[in-house]
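Write out the bound-state structure for zinc ion.
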Amino acid sequence: MTAIRAAPDIPQARFRDRLAAARDATADGGLSALLIGVGPDLRYLTGYVAMPLERLTMLVVPAADNVPVTLIVPRLEVDPARRAPAIRGGYVDLATWEETGDPHADVAALARAAGAGRVGVNDTLVASHLLRLQASLGDSEFVSAATVLGRLRIVKDRDEVETLRAAAHAADRVVDAIASGRLIGRAEADVAREVRDRLVAEGHETAAFAIVGSGPNASSPHHEASEREIRAGEPIVLDIGGTLGGYGSDTTRTLWPNGGAADAEPGDEFRGAFDVLRRAQAAATAAVRPGVPAEEIDATARQIIDAAGFGPNFFHRTGHGIGLEEHEDPYLVAGNREPLREGMAFSVEPGIYAEGRWGMRLEDIVVCGPDGPDLLNRSDLDLREVDGS
Ligand code: ZN
Ligand code: ZN
Ligand code: ZN
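---
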Protein backbone atom coordinates (compact mmCIF):
# COMPACT_ATOMS: atom_id res chain seq x y z
CA MET A 1 0.00 0.00 0.00
CA THR A 2 1.17 3.52 -0.72
CA ALA A 3 2.09 6.00 2.00
CA ILE A 4 -0.44 8.43 3.35
CA ARG A 5 -0.71 11.50 1.16
CA ALA A 6 -1.52 14.88 2.66
CA ALA A 7 -4.68 16.60 1.51
CA PRO A 8 -4.28 19.94 -0.28
CA ASP A 9 -4.74 22.85 2.10
CA ILE A 10 -7.45 25.48 1.89
CA PRO A 11 -5.48 28.78 2.15
CA GLN A 12 -6.10 30.69 5.38
CA ALA A 13 -7.28 33.87 3.67
CA ARG A 14 -10.05 31.89 1.95
CA PHE A 15 -11.86 31.76 5.30
CA ARG A 16 -11.84 35.56 5.52
CA ASP A 17 -13.50 35.67 2.08
CA ARG A 18 -16.04 33.00 3.03
CA LEU A 19 -16.97 34.83 6.23
CA ALA A 20 -17.38 38.10 4.33
CA ALA A 21 -19.57 36.37 1.75
CA ALA A 22 -21.59 34.72 4.52
CA ARG A 23 -22.23 38.09 6.18
CA ASP A 24 -23.39 39.60 2.90
CA ALA A 25 -25.64 36.63 2.17
CA THR A 26 -27.02 36.78 5.72
CA ALA A 27 -27.95 40.44 5.29
CA ASP A 28 -29.38 39.79 1.81
CA GLY A 29 -31.43 36.94 3.23
CA GLY A 30 -33.04 39.24 5.79
CA LEU A 31 -31.36 37.56 8.77
CA SER A 32 -29.57 39.36 11.58
CA ALA A 33 -27.10 36.55 12.32
CA LEU A 34 -26.14 32.95 11.72
CA LEU A 35 -25.72 30.64 14.72
CA ILE A 36 -23.55 27.79 13.51
CA GLY A 37 -22.90 24.75 15.68
CA VAL A 38 -20.54 21.85 15.07
CA GLY A 39 -20.71 20.44 11.55
CA PRO A 40 -19.79 21.10 7.94
CA ASP A 41 -20.98 24.73 7.96
CA LEU A 42 -18.61 25.50 10.86
CA ARG A 43 -15.75 23.81 9.04
CA TYR A 44 -16.57 25.68 5.82
CA LEU A 45 -16.57 29.09 7.52
CA THR A 46 -13.65 28.68 9.95
CA GLY A 47 -11.68 25.53 9.14
CA TYR A 48 -12.45 24.37 12.67
CA VAL A 49 -13.11 20.65 12.90
CA ALA A 50 -14.81 20.58 16.28
CA MET A 51 -15.72 17.49 18.23
CA PRO A 52 -19.48 16.96 18.44
CA LEU A 53 -19.94 17.24 22.20
CA GLU A 54 -22.89 17.86 24.47
CA ARG A 55 -21.08 21.09 25.40
CA LEU A 56 -21.96 23.95 23.06
CA THR A 57 -19.51 25.16 20.42
CA MET A 58 -21.03 27.90 18.27
CA LEU A 59 -20.00 30.46 15.69
CA VAL A 60 -22.06 33.65 15.70
CA VAL A 61 -21.91 35.44 12.34
CA PRO A 62 -23.67 38.80 12.49
CA ALA A 63 -24.92 40.30 9.25
CA ALA A 64 -23.66 43.73 10.30
CA ASP A 65 -19.98 44.35 9.49
CA ASN A 66 -19.43 46.38 12.66
CA VAL A 67 -20.20 43.46 15.01
CA PRO A 68 -17.38 40.88 15.19
CA VAL A 69 -17.80 37.23 14.27
CA THR A 70 -17.34 35.20 17.45
CA LEU A 71 -16.63 31.55 18.08
CA ILE A 72 -17.73 30.34 21.50
CA VAL A 73 -16.08 27.14 22.72
CA PRO A 74 -15.93 25.24 26.00
CA ARG A 75 -12.79 26.16 27.93
CA LEU A 76 -11.33 22.68 27.47
CA GLU A 77 -11.57 22.98 23.66
CA VAL A 78 -9.70 26.27 23.43
CA ASP A 79 -6.42 24.81 22.12
CA PRO A 80 -7.77 23.10 19.03
CA ALA A 81 -10.03 26.10 18.37
CA ARG A 82 -7.00 28.43 18.43
CA ARG A 83 -5.43 26.40 15.63
CA ALA A 84 -8.41 26.91 13.30
CA PRO A 85 -7.39 28.99 10.26
CA ALA A 86 -10.09 31.64 10.80
CA ILE A 87 -8.92 32.15 14.41
CA ARG A 88 -5.23 32.19 13.43
CA GLY A 89 -6.06 34.72 10.72
CA GLY A 90 -7.81 36.96 13.24
CA TYR A 91 -11.07 36.89 11.25
CA VAL A 92 -13.00 35.52 14.22
CA ASP A 93 -12.93 36.41 17.92
CA LEU A 94 -12.59 33.47 20.27
CA ALA A 95 -14.64 33.33 23.46
CA THR A 96 -14.67 30.53 26.00
CA TRP A 97 -17.21 29.43 28.54
CA GLU A 98 -16.48 27.81 31.87
CA GLU A 99 -17.84 24.47 32.96
CA THR A 100 -20.52 26.11 35.13
CA GLY A 101 -21.37 28.81 32.60
CA ASP A 102 -24.42 29.20 30.37
CA PRO A 103 -23.17 29.23 26.78
CA HIS A 104 -26.68 29.45 25.35
CA ALA A 105 -27.16 32.73 27.21
CA ASP A 106 -23.77 33.91 25.88
CA VAL A 107 -24.85 33.13 22.33
CA ALA A 108 -28.19 34.85 22.92
CA ALA A 109 -26.34 38.00 24.07
CA LEU A 110 -24.23 38.00 20.91
CA ALA A 111 -27.31 37.42 18.76
CA ARG A 112 -29.04 40.35 20.45
CA ALA A 113 -25.99 42.52 19.78
CA ALA A 114 -26.45 41.56 16.12
CA GLY A 115 -30.10 42.61 16.24
CA ALA A 116 -31.75 39.25 17.05
CA GLY A 117 -34.91 39.12 14.88
CA ARG A 118 -34.55 36.30 12.38
CA VAL A 119 -31.53 34.07 12.96
CA GLY A 120 -30.27 31.17 10.86
CA VAL A 121 -29.11 27.90 12.45
CA ASN A 122 -27.19 25.10 10.77
CA ASP A 123 -29.19 22.06 9.72
CA THR A 124 -27.05 19.68 11.78
CA LEU A 125 -27.46 21.54 15.08
CA VAL A 126 -28.71 19.06 17.66
CA ALA A 127 -32.17 19.64 19.10
CA SER A 128 -30.93 19.97 22.69
CA HIS A 129 -28.92 23.09 21.75
CA LEU A 130 -31.59 24.50 19.44
CA LEU A 131 -34.27 24.19 22.11
CA ARG A 132 -32.13 25.99 24.68
CA LEU A 133 -31.27 28.74 22.20
CA GLN A 134 -34.95 29.17 21.40
CA ALA A 135 -35.68 29.47 25.11
CA SER A 136 -32.91 32.09 25.50
CA LEU A 137 -33.99 34.07 22.41
CA GLY A 138 -37.74 33.95 22.88
CA ASP A 139 -38.49 36.77 20.44
CA SER A 140 -36.35 35.51 17.60
CA GLU A 141 -37.51 33.56 14.60
CA PHE A 142 -35.28 30.58 13.80
CA VAL A 143 -34.75 29.58 10.18
CA SER A 144 -32.35 27.27 8.36
CA ALA A 145 -28.93 28.78 7.65
CA ALA A 146 -28.85 26.56 4.58
CA THR A 147 -30.90 29.17 2.72
CA VAL A 148 -27.85 31.43 3.08
CA LEU A 149 -24.86 29.06 3.25
CA GLY A 150 -26.15 26.54 0.76
CA ARG A 151 -25.76 29.14 -1.99
CA LEU A 152 -22.10 29.60 -1.05
CA ARG A 153 -21.17 25.98 -0.44
CA ILE A 154 -22.76 24.69 -3.65
CA VAL A 155 -20.00 26.27 -5.75
CA LYS A 156 -16.55 24.87 -5.00
CA ASP A 157 -13.45 27.01 -5.26
CA ARG A 158 -10.22 25.85 -6.87
CA ASP A 159 -8.77 24.36 -3.69
CA GLU A 160 -11.96 22.53 -2.85
CA VAL A 161 -11.99 21.03 -6.35
CA GLU A 162 -8.37 19.92 -5.96
CA THR A 163 -9.17 18.35 -2.59
CA LEU A 164 -12.13 16.52 -4.12
CA ARG A 165 -9.84 15.41 -6.94
CA ALA A 166 -7.25 14.06 -4.50
CA ALA A 167 -10.01 12.17 -2.68
CA ALA A 168 -11.32 10.77 -5.98
CA HIS A 169 -7.89 9.60 -7.11
CA ALA A 170 -7.29 7.93 -3.76
CA ALA A 171 -10.60 6.06 -4.10
CA ASP A 172 -9.68 5.11 -7.69
CA ARG A 173 -6.48 3.48 -6.47
CA VAL A 174 -8.47 1.49 -3.93
CA VAL A 175 -10.92 0.32 -6.62
CA ASP A 176 -8.03 -0.77 -8.82
CA ALA A 177 -6.35 -2.60 -5.94
CA ILE A 178 -9.56 -4.45 -5.08
CA ALA A 179 -10.23 -5.32 -8.71
CA SER A 180 -6.78 -6.83 -9.14
CA GLY A 181 -6.85 -8.85 -5.90
CA ARG A 182 -8.54 -12.03 -4.78
CA LEU A 183 -12.34 -11.86 -4.60
CA ILE A 184 -13.66 -15.38 -5.17
CA GLY A 185 -14.32 -17.29 -1.95
CA ARG A 186 -14.10 -14.18 0.25
CA ALA A 187 -17.04 -12.76 2.18
CA GLU A 188 -18.35 -9.39 1.00
CA ALA A 189 -17.66 -8.04 4.49
CA ASP A 190 -14.03 -9.13 4.26
CA VAL A 191 -13.60 -7.20 1.00
CA ALA A 192 -15.36 -4.21 2.59
CA ARG A 193 -12.85 -4.27 5.47
CA GLU A 194 -10.00 -4.24 2.97
CA VAL A 195 -11.64 -1.28 1.17
CA ARG A 196 -11.81 0.68 4.44
CA ASP A 197 -8.21 -0.11 5.35
CA ARG A 198 -7.01 0.90 1.91
CA LEU A 199 -8.99 4.17 1.90
CA VAL A 200 -7.32 5.13 5.17
CA ALA A 201 -3.90 4.05 3.84
CA GLU A 202 -4.57 6.32 0.86
CA GLY A 203 -5.01 9.34 3.14
CA HIS A 204 -8.70 9.27 4.01
CA GLU A 205 -9.56 10.34 7.56
CA THR A 206 -12.64 8.19 7.44
CA ALA A 207 -13.85 5.39 5.18
CA ALA A 208 -17.52 6.22 5.44
CA PHE A 209 -18.93 3.38 3.40
CA ALA A 210 -17.90 0.29 1.45
CA ILE A 211 -20.77 -1.28 -0.44
CA VAL A 212 -19.81 -4.71 -1.74
CA GLY A 213 -22.89 -6.28 -3.35
CA SER A 214 -22.25 -9.59 -5.06
CA GLY A 215 -24.56 -11.69 -7.22
CA PRO A 216 -28.19 -11.05 -6.25
CA ASN A 217 -27.02 -8.57 -3.58
CA ALA A 218 -25.83 -6.31 -6.42
CA SER A 219 -29.49 -5.59 -7.16
CA SER A 220 -29.90 -3.68 -3.88
CA PRO A 221 -28.27 -0.25 -4.43
CA HIS A 222 -27.40 0.36 -0.77
CA HIS A 223 -26.65 -3.24 0.17
CA GLU A 224 -24.60 -3.62 3.35
CA ALA A 225 -21.64 -5.93 2.84
CA SER A 226 -22.68 -9.30 4.27
CA GLU A 227 -21.07 -12.66 5.06
CA ARG A 228 -22.10 -13.90 1.60
CA GLU A 229 -19.23 -15.55 -0.19
CA ILE A 230 -18.30 -14.07 -3.57
CA ARG A 231 -18.39 -16.57 -6.43
CA ALA A 232 -17.00 -16.68 -9.93
CA GLY A 233 -19.44 -15.74 -12.68
CA GLU A 234 -21.45 -13.05 -10.93
CA PRO A 235 -21.27 -9.26 -10.71
CA ILE A 236 -20.03 -7.16 -7.79
CA VAL A 237 -21.20 -3.58 -7.31
CA LEU A 238 -18.34 -1.87 -5.47
CA ASP A 239 -19.36 1.59 -4.16
CA ILE A 240 -16.82 3.15 -1.84
CA GLY A 241 -15.95 6.46 -0.27
CA GLY A 242 -15.05 8.54 2.72
CA THR A 243 -13.39 11.87 3.35
CA LEU A 244 -9.94 13.19 2.62
CA GLY A 245 -9.05 16.67 3.84
CA GLY A 246 -12.70 16.86 4.89
CA TYR A 247 -14.00 16.39 1.34
CA GLY A 248 -15.85 13.33 0.12
CA SER A 249 -14.90 10.59 -2.29
CA ASP A 250 -17.62 8.39 -3.77
CA THR A 251 -17.12 6.06 -6.71
CA THR A 252 -18.78 2.92 -8.02
CA ARG A 253 -17.48 0.32 -10.42
CA THR A 254 -19.00 -3.00 -11.45
CA LEU A 255 -16.68 -5.99 -11.32
CA TRP A 256 -17.13 -9.48 -12.73
CA PRO A 257 -14.77 -12.10 -11.32
CA ASN A 258 -14.59 -15.10 -13.66
CA GLY A 259 -11.83 -17.18 -12.06
CA GLY A 260 -10.25 -17.47 -15.49
CA ALA A 261 -13.03 -19.81 -16.63
CA ALA A 262 -14.78 -19.24 -19.96
CA ASP A 263 -18.09 -20.55 -18.59
CA ALA A 264 -18.01 -17.91 -15.82
CA GLU A 265 -18.12 -14.95 -18.20
CA PRO A 266 -21.10 -12.59 -18.26
CA GLY A 267 -24.00 -13.62 -20.50
CA ASP A 268 -25.64 -11.60 -23.25
CA GLU A 269 -28.34 -10.15 -20.97
CA PHE A 270 -25.80 -8.71 -18.54
CA ARG A 271 -23.44 -7.49 -21.25
CA GLY A 272 -26.29 -5.83 -23.12
CA ALA A 273 -27.55 -4.05 -20.02
CA PHE A 274 -24.04 -2.96 -19.11
CA ASP A 275 -23.53 -1.43 -22.53
CA VAL A 276 -26.71 0.61 -21.97
CA LEU A 277 -25.52 1.71 -18.52
CA ARG A 278 -22.09 2.66 -19.81
CA ARG A 279 -23.62 4.81 -22.56
CA ALA A 280 -26.10 6.41 -20.16
CA GLN A 281 -23.36 7.32 -17.68
CA ALA A 282 -21.14 8.73 -20.43
CA ALA A 283 -23.94 10.76 -22.03
CA ALA A 284 -25.07 12.20 -18.70
CA THR A 285 -21.49 13.20 -17.87
CA ALA A 286 -20.97 14.75 -21.31
CA ALA A 287 -24.14 16.84 -20.86
CA VAL A 288 -22.62 18.71 -17.89
CA ARG A 289 -22.02 22.39 -18.56
CA PRO A 290 -23.00 25.71 -17.01
CA GLY A 291 -26.63 26.65 -17.53
CA VAL A 292 -27.93 23.10 -18.00
CA PRO A 293 -30.66 22.35 -15.41
CA ALA A 294 -29.65 19.67 -12.89
CA GLU A 295 -32.69 17.58 -13.86
CA GLU A 296 -31.49 17.43 -17.45
CA ILE A 297 -28.43 15.38 -16.47
CA ASP A 298 -30.81 12.91 -14.83
CA ALA A 299 -33.08 12.92 -17.89
CA THR A 300 -30.13 12.28 -20.22
CA ALA A 301 -29.19 9.07 -18.41
CA ARG A 302 -32.80 8.02 -17.94
CA GLN A 303 -33.79 8.42 -21.60
CA ILE A 304 -31.07 6.02 -22.72
CA ILE A 305 -31.96 3.46 -20.05
CA ASP A 306 -35.70 3.86 -20.75
CA ALA A 307 -35.23 3.46 -24.50
CA ALA A 308 -33.45 0.15 -23.91
CA GLY A 309 -36.41 -1.09 -21.85
CA PHE A 310 -34.71 -0.86 -18.45
CA GLY A 311 -36.63 2.19 -17.20
CA PRO A 312 -38.23 0.37 -14.22
CA ASN A 313 -34.80 -1.03 -13.31
CA PHE A 314 -33.32 2.44 -12.70
CA PHE A 315 -35.24 3.69 -9.68
CA HIS A 316 -32.95 6.24 -8.03
CA ARG A 317 -31.84 9.75 -8.92
CA THR A 318 -28.77 10.10 -11.14
CA GLY A 319 -26.63 11.98 -8.66
CA HIS A 320 -26.01 14.12 -5.60
CA GLY A 321 -23.73 17.04 -4.82
CA ILE A 322 -20.59 16.29 -2.83
CA GLY A 323 -18.21 18.41 -0.78
CA LEU A 324 -17.84 18.63 2.99
CA GLU A 325 -20.89 16.36 3.03
CA GLU A 326 -21.20 13.07 1.18
CA HIS A 327 -24.66 14.07 -0.08
CA GLU A 328 -25.45 17.78 -0.52
CA ASP A 329 -26.85 20.13 -3.14
CA PRO A 330 -27.21 19.99 -6.08
CA TYR A 331 -29.27 16.82 -6.55
CA LEU A 332 -29.56 15.51 -10.11
CA VAL A 333 -33.19 14.53 -9.99
CA ALA A 334 -36.38 15.25 -11.95
CA GLY A 335 -37.89 18.47 -10.68
CA ASN A 336 -34.60 20.20 -9.82
CA ARG A 337 -34.47 22.95 -12.43
CA GLU A 338 -31.50 24.68 -10.82
CA PRO A 339 -29.01 25.51 -13.58
CA LEU A 340 -25.55 24.02 -13.13
CA ARG A 341 -22.83 26.54 -12.41
CA GLU A 342 -19.09 26.34 -12.83
CA GLY A 343 -17.62 24.79 -9.69
CA MET A 344 -20.58 22.62 -8.74
CA ALA A 345 -19.45 19.07 -7.85
CA PHE A 346 -21.72 16.03 -7.97
CA SER A 347 -21.91 12.32 -8.69
CA VAL A 348 -23.21 10.89 -11.95
CA GLU A 349 -24.31 7.40 -10.96
CA PRO A 350 -27.00 5.63 -12.95
CA GLY A 351 -27.66 1.97 -12.19
CA ILE A 352 -29.70 -0.93 -13.55
CA TYR A 353 -31.02 -3.54 -11.11
CA ALA A 354 -32.78 -6.85 -11.79
CA GLU A 355 -34.31 -7.60 -8.41
CA GLY A 356 -32.94 -10.69 -6.73
CA ARG A 357 -30.74 -11.54 -9.71
CA TRP A 358 -28.08 -8.94 -10.55
CA GLY A 359 -27.25 -5.25 -10.52
CA MET A 360 -24.82 -2.74 -11.95
CA ARG A 361 -23.90 0.88 -11.29
CA LEU A 362 -21.22 3.29 -12.45
CA GLU A 363 -20.40 6.41 -10.46
CA ASP A 364 -17.99 9.23 -11.08
CA ILE A 365 -17.61 12.56 -9.35
CA VAL A 366 -17.88 15.36 -11.91
CA VAL A 367 -17.21 19.08 -11.52
CA CYS A 368 -18.99 21.50 -13.81
CA GLY A 369 -16.18 23.26 -15.68
CA PRO A 370 -16.41 26.51 -17.66
CA ASP A 371 -17.48 24.71 -20.83
CA GLY A 372 -17.94 21.07 -19.96
CA PRO A 373 -17.40 18.33 -17.41
CA ASP A 374 -14.23 17.93 -15.34
CA LEU A 375 -14.05 14.24 -14.37
CA LEU A 376 -12.43 13.72 -10.99
CA ASN A 377 -12.35 9.92 -11.16
CA ARG A 378 -10.20 8.32 -13.78
CA SER A 379 -10.36 4.58 -13.19
CA ASP A 380 -11.71 2.42 -16.02
CA LEU A 381 -15.52 2.56 -16.34
CA ASP A 382 -15.84 -0.58 -18.46
CA LEU A 383 -17.18 -3.80 -16.97
CA ARG A 384 -14.19 -5.06 -14.99
CA GLU A 385 -13.88 -8.70 -15.94
CA VAL A 386 -11.23 -9.89 -13.56
CA ASP A 387 -9.77 -13.23 -12.58
CA GLY A 388 -10.43 -12.73 -8.88
CA SER A 389 -9.08 -16.12 -7.81
ZN1 ZN B 1 -25.78 6.23 -2.39
ZN1 ZN C 1 -21.55 5.88 -4.19
ZN1 ZN D 1 -22.92 8.65 -4.62
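---
The first strand starts at residue 33 and ends at 36.
The mean pLDDT is 96.
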